[in-house]
């Protein structure tokens, strides 16, 4: 007996009962029973999943795994469009199955993939199915765009607004929370972190019902143009109808914007004040924030009173210069009620303390320079022959990618894929080839430049000596060697270096 599997895929949102699971299952049972040499192994059924991609079709993928394990010898499906609407998937999977001795019978289309002429017919029908999927997708996008232009809302309800049947209306309870957030941020100049704490402490709930508010949640609300009555849609788009993957719209397709579309929750004046402050804070944090881990003292300055890390902020002096200053995180967020350590530390003062500590170390500087140099040299030489940057490995990758590109052309000339697909895959592989060639050139240059280890050792040794002697600065070195700087209430500070028992004391 030949064990036969069957595969079906249905869309559950259709009223047509001929496409239901039970109807299709009954069809396959009857079809297989007609042949006395066949025995039904299992019916694999995916419900409500698109046919243009196999990535999310759990049952289809399980069927393929069972095929690899030899659990059946044949597959019966109703038609090509039920198996896949992606021509490459159709050809790839039927070829894989045929190589294992497993034929696929498309009952309605009268195709048996074990027959010699089947692939040509299969390619033609699969191409038609794929093109129909593309046209359907285009029609859906076109229809949605026209509706968006008319003001129909595509999206979910949110705090302060209910969205139903394409219409948006104010939810009074949520609207009061939104107004409170904008008032505190735009008019009272309260930070988003403080607003989040206030809402949490006062028992307000987020739209999802959480009692815990976060700063990011507040920022998202402040950034949402719906609260001023404007509607902006198409913030995401689907570049590929085959994968259905959504991506953020960064100018790839036009946004659809309708001002004064619905009842606002906050006034235009308050909204503008909030946006001005957000832009100012974003600029500050993006270019000048003291929170970044790239700074020497980020997370390294500790408050002896409350245990909190100090946070950095930039401040402009009267002469126009700017300096980074560090202060207790608890005191910054909660005021003196949270922590009464009011010590502010300038970044340049902290750097000078660190330099002083390094220069006063009781150690053999020459030995340190030699040891650090050898470690750095070893790391560089090991790094240059890493697998990813090995020229021989990159040349192999180049050859394999070139072969893939040539295989695409072969598939096109044999009419297995369309011109559009050929162009898409060719562009993809050409980009990969370009990147590989660049990496190969860089790898070869590194190999040539690093051949002379004696010269390289001298360069490293000179740089390490300059840092230790205070002749040049290195934030990486400073951050590596610094363990902590502890600030006490009486304004004195203790500096500790990594791997060393010495503690350096500085007066406030």
């Amino acid at each position: 007996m030949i064990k036969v599997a069957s595969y079906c895929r249905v869309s559950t949102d259709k009223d047509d009962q001929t496409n239901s699971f039970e109807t299709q299952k009954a069809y396959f049972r009857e079809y297989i029973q007609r042949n006395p040499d066949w025995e039904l192994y299992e019916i694999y059924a995916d419900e409500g999943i698109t046919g243009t991609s196999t990535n999310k079709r759990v049952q289809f993928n399980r069927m393929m795994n069972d095929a690899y394990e030899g659990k059946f010898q044949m597959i019966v499906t109703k038609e090509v469009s039920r198996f896949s609407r992606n021509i490459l998937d159709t050809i790839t999977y039927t070829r894989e199955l045929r190589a294992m001795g497993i034929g696929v019978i498309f009952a309605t289309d009268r195709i048996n993939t074990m027959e010699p002429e089947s692939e040509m017919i299969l390619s033609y029908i699969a191409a038609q199915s794929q093109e129909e999927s593309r046209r359907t997708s285009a029609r859906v996008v076109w229809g949605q765009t026209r509706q968006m232009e008319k003001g129909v809302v595509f999206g979910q309800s949110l705090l302060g607004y209910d969205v139903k049947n394409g219409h948006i209306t104010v939810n009074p309870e949520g609207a009061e929370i939104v107004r409170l957030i904008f008032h505190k941020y735009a008019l009272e100049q309260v930070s988003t972190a403080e607003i989040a704490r206030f809402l949490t402490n006062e028992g307000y709930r987020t739209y999802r019902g959480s009692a815990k508010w976060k700063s990011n949640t507040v920022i998202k609300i402040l950034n949402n143009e719906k609260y001023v009555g404007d509607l902006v849609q198409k913030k995401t788009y689907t570049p590929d109808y085959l994968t259905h993957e959504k991506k953020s719209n960064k100018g790839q397709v036009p946004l659809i914007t309708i001002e004064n579309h619905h009842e606002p929750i906050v006034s235009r004046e308050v909204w503008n004040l909030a946006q001005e402050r957000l832009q100012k804070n974003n600029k500050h944090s993006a270019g000048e924030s003291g929170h970044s881990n790239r700074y020497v003292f980020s997370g390294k300055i500790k408050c002896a009173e409350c245990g909190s890390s100090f946070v950095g902020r930039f401040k402009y002096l009267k002469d126009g210069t700017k300096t980074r200053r560090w202060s207790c995180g608890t005191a910054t967020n909660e005021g003196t009620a949270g922590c009464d350590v009011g010590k502010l530390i300038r970044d340049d003062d902290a750097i000078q303390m660190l330099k002083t500590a390094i220069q006063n170390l009781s150690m053999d500087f020459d030995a340190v320079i030699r040891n650090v140099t050898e470690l750095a040299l070893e790391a560089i030489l090991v790094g240059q022959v890493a697998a990813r940057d090995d020229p021989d490995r990159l040349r192999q990758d180049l050859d394999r990618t070139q072969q893939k590109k040539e295989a695409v052309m072969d598939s096109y000339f044999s009419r297995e894929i369309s011109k559009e697909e050929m162009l898409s895959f060719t562009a993809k592989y050409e980009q990969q080839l370009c990147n590989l060639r660049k990496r190969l050139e860089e790898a070869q240059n590194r190999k040539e430049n690093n051949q002379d280890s004696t010269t390289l050792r001298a360069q490293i040794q000179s740089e390490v000596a300059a840092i230790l002697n205070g002749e040049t600065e290195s934030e990486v070195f400073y951050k590596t060697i610094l363990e902590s700087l502890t600030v006490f209430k009486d304004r004195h500070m203790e500096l500790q270096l990594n791997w060393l028992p010495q503690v350096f004391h500085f007066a406030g």
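The longest strand covers residues 38-47. The chain is about 50% helix and 15% strand.
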